[in-house]
Amino acid sequence: MRAVLVAKGIRTMSTRKLLAAVVGVSTIGLSALCASPALAVCSTNCASTNVTFTLGGSGLALSVPSNTDVDLGSATSNVLGTTVSGALHSTTVTDTRGQLAAAWTVTVASTGFTGSGTAAGQSLAAGQAGMYLDAVTTLANAVALATGGLIPTSITTLATPVTLSSAGGTLMAGTTTGSGSITYTPGIKVTIPASAIAGTYSGAVTQTVS
After folding, report:
1. Residue ranges of E strands in the chain
2. What whole-number distance in Å separates Cα of residue 101 and Cα of residue 151?
3. Quick check: helix, strand or coil at residue 5?
4. Cβ pair 153, 187 in contact under 8 A
5. DSSP string across 27-71
6. Phi, psi dihedrals of residue 60, rounded to the nearest 5°
7. pLDDT of residue 13
8. Quick one: 142 exposed, middle or buried, by C-beta within 10 A (0-12, 13-18, 19+)?
């Protein structure tokens, strides 16, 4: 009976020592983990510096090549009327205002076309012409032309041209977050009535971004 009691005492002592050893190892591991530099909290012997900088916005601009003259070629007078069409030079809209979803609109305007030569004294009203984004048939096509945070949200195509007038009409519109740009080619189609006098006609088309 005494031997049995001694044996139980030995097991108890061994179990306590084992538990103490495990707790000790765990405590050491936890201490080592807390002492790791990666997890250390800055309290002394360290300093923080606030870094500040300013980003300024620039503006909104539209640019075309210096030589902007375009010849649409010729057409032959017809009892049903006729048309001439073509592409203007590439145009770039650049938005560096640095704002959030800032709206922009490209408008086109004209006062019409004045005749010369055998058509001297004649004219064609601006409303005889319509403009559109050349080679662009969907909004996705226009979005693909844009860079940065500039996103076109509405466009005119050959199927839905904007009629020219002195007041101007919207060729394209969109928004820009931050900065961005888009380069596109405007197209123009002039409808010539059967009553038009043969000769050369010319007129200015103005693009404006705002």
Report:
1. 60-63, 82-87, 91-110, 113-116, 123-124, 129-133, 146-155, 162-163, 169-184, 186-192, 200-202, 205-209
2. 9
3. helix
4. no
5. HHHHHHHHT-GGGPPP-SS--------------EEEE--S-----
6. -125, 130
7. 41
8. buried
DSSP H helical segments within 60-176, as ranges? 139-145
Q: Are 197 and 118 in contact (CB under 8 A)?
A: yes
Q: For tokens 């019409």, what's the residue? A: 112
Q: How many CB atoms lie within 10 A of CB 94?
A: 20
pLDDT digits (tens, 9 = 90+) for 125-156: 999 999 999 999 999 999 999 999 999 999 99
Contact 175, 101 (CB under 8 A): yes
Predicted pLDDT of residue 43: 76
**Which SS3 state, helix, strand or coil, does residue 87 take?**
strand
Give me the percent of the chain exceeding a pLDDT of 90: 77
Residue with tokens 């900088």: 53
Bridge partners of 115, per DSSP, are: 201
Pair 178, 149: CB distance under 8 Å: yes
Q: What percent of the chain has pLDDT over 70?
A: 80
